[in-house]
Amino acid sequence: MPATNPSEEAPWRAGLHGARALLGPGLVLQAVALALVLVYYFVPAADGMFAQLAVWRTAGGYAFSALASAVCGGVLPFLYLRLNPATRSANPWPHLLFFALFWAWKGAEVDLWYRTLAVVFGSEPSFATVAPKVIADQFGYNLLYAAPVGNLCWAWKDAGFRWAPVAADLRKGRWYVRSVLPVLCGVWAVWIPVVCCVYALPSVLQIPLFNVVLCFWSLLFAHILARQNQANS
């Protein structure tokens, strides 16, 4: 889940703090992703489940990716934040539409990105295929596009859906260094191992695994946010 957390700390120090905060949840996410990959390759009893996921993913196309991501990345974490007394006031019901639409868009976008990488680098689950996909994903797509755009969208939401405060923050200078880079450091610590697992699966199963991990990621992130708000209250 994107986060806007401008800091006066050095970016590397703020990023290190973020990575430490996400260490425990990150290990859980990575373990879940790795476990699913191992089950796919080494547990024949799960073949039917993966085959059904592949059918749904193929039949649903981008609509499946958008709907699954909206639920896993948006609706479920929003409900957690809304039902938690520490974060309820900051997450009124109208924000549910933002959460759902943002993640529906990201789900379709990530689906397109995965398809593009498969065309460029191939679909074989080998090191020669997975490694360039991970590099392009985390140090191309995420670094140059996904992280800054997501940060702007979340800043817009946090500013009451007004662009003027967002523009004012941009005019202060060093916006990327202050707001995006610290978040990226924490995200990289979690998601680089996760996307290695995602790209180790066949293309048709990559979005389903992404959504399983996204659900855990979003709920854990919401839990961390709730604990921070309780500590600061």
Description:
- The protein is mainly alpha-helical and about 230 residues long.
- It is built from eight helices and no strands.
- The protein has helices at about 10-20, 25-40, 45-85, 95-120, 125-160, 165-170, 175-200, 205-230.
- α2 packs parallel to α7 (about 175-200) and α5 (about 125-160) packs across α7.
- It is globular and about 50 Å long.
- The two termini are about 25 Å apart.
Q: How many beta-strand elements? A: 0
Q: Which term fits the overall shape?
A: globular
Bin the helical content. over 70%
Q: What proportion strand?
A: under 5%
Oligomer class: single chain
Low-pLDDT parts are 3-7
Query: What number is the mean pLDDT?
Result: 86
Number of helices: 8
The radius of gyration is 18 Å
Based on helices, strands and strand pairing, what is the structural class? mainly alpha
Distance between the termini: 23 Å
Task: Tell me the major beta sheet.
Answer: none
When the domains are counted, the total is 1
Give the topology string: H per helix, E per strand: HHHHHHHH
SSE topology sketch:
Layout: H1 11-21, H2 23-42, H3 47-83, H4 95-121, H5 127-158, H6 163-171, H7 175-199, H8 203-232
Q: Summarize this, please?
A:
Helix 2 packs antiparallel against helix 8 and helix 5 packs across helix 7. The two termini are 23 Å apart.
